[in-house]
Amino acid sequence: MPVSAALRVHFITEDDPLYVAEFFEAFLCLYKREEIQIVGISIQQPFNEGRFSTAHRVLSLYGPTGFARLLVRFARRKLQGHSVARLARDANIPFVPTMSVNDSGFVERIKLLDPDVIVSVAAPEIFKTAILEVPRLGCINVHSGRLPRYRGMMPTFWQMRSGEPNVTVTVHEMAEKLDAGPVLGTAECQIEEHDSLDRVMVAAKHEGARLLIRVLRELAAGGIQPQQLDMTEASYFSFPSRADVLRLRQLGHRLI
Q1: Can you give the pLDDT at residue 49?
Q2: Which residues contact 148 (CB under 8 A, 6 or more apart)?
Q3: pLDDT value at position 2?
Q4: Residues sharing a CB contact under 8 Å with residue 255, sequence separation 6 or more, in sequence order
Q5: Which pLDDT score is estimated for 47?
Q6: What's the rounded Cα separation, in Å, for the pair 230 and 155?
Q7: Residue-range domain boundaries for the chain
Q8: Three-class DSSP labels, the chain
Q9: CB 124 within 8 A of CB 46
């Protein structure tokens, strides 16, 4: 593909140095600049909430010891520069700030960038019609779960808790209904007999980066036939409880 025909991509994501940063480290290392031009990135708070609320949510899941270990890793990653914002700056990717992707002013700024595709990577909001209609080839999402079975939050956890042999990473078209658009591509990561959520989440982010590059190439070439979801098979999962963590451990897995 000639440089002039590079696919114009805008990313919308969250500020997470542990896992989302792993996705962008892999993507920025692997994608070809002559095929894909990243025209901008917008970074929001995880879960679209304040840091204290996020910390309380994570503490409730991991417990005091796990939370302390995770906090140390979080701080170390930050000090080492493993943030999405730092990766974007180092790659000279323009930053487009917003509190909401559905804000009319943000939608107008994105229109000026003229993206072919908007990519959601753990974006903490449901996209509404105004932003969905901006890119020529649509908005797509990278979801670390098999759809429509594992719609919702923390799909990697729920696949492990359900005893699945693999995590299925899905790239799909976005719709106003959460995780309900047609599938553009899938890839799998094996779950080992005694595994950790941490390891599998990192592996899924790396696999997701490779899958997204493949999907973007196929979109640019017009070679994808979207696969409609059968929503009669749909489920939705919210944030796990301590009882869900106990079940995960009974299956021989751990969080970290």
Answers
A1: 64
A2: 179, 180, 229, 230, 231, 233, 234, 235
A3: 41
A4: 61, 62, 66, 196, 197, 198, 245, 248
A5: 66
A6: 18
A7: 3-250
A8: CCHHHCEEEEEEEECCCCCHHHHHHHHHHHCCCCCEEEEEEEEECHHHCCHHHHHHHHHHHHHHHHHHHHHHHHHHHHHCCCCHHHHHHHCCCCECCCCCCCCHHHHHHHHHHCCCEEEEECCCCCCCHHHHCCCCCCEEEEECCCCCCCEECCHHHHHHHCCCCEEEEEEEECCCCCCCCCEEEEEEEECCCCCEHHHHHHHHHHHHHHHHHHHHHHHHHCCCCCECCCHHHCCEECCCCHHHHHHHHHCCCECC
A9: yes
Ranges of residues in the chain whose predicted pLDDT is under 50: 1-3
Between CA 216 and CA 119 the distance in angstroms is 10
Res 77: pLDDT: 84
Position 3 scores a pLDDT of: 43
pLDDT digits over 205-253, tens only? 999 999 999 999 999 999 899 999 998 889 999 999 999 999 999 999 9
Architecture of domain 3-250: 3-Layer(aba) Sandwich (3.40)
pLDDT digits (tens, 9 = 90+) for 14-40: 988 999 999 999 999 999 999 999 999
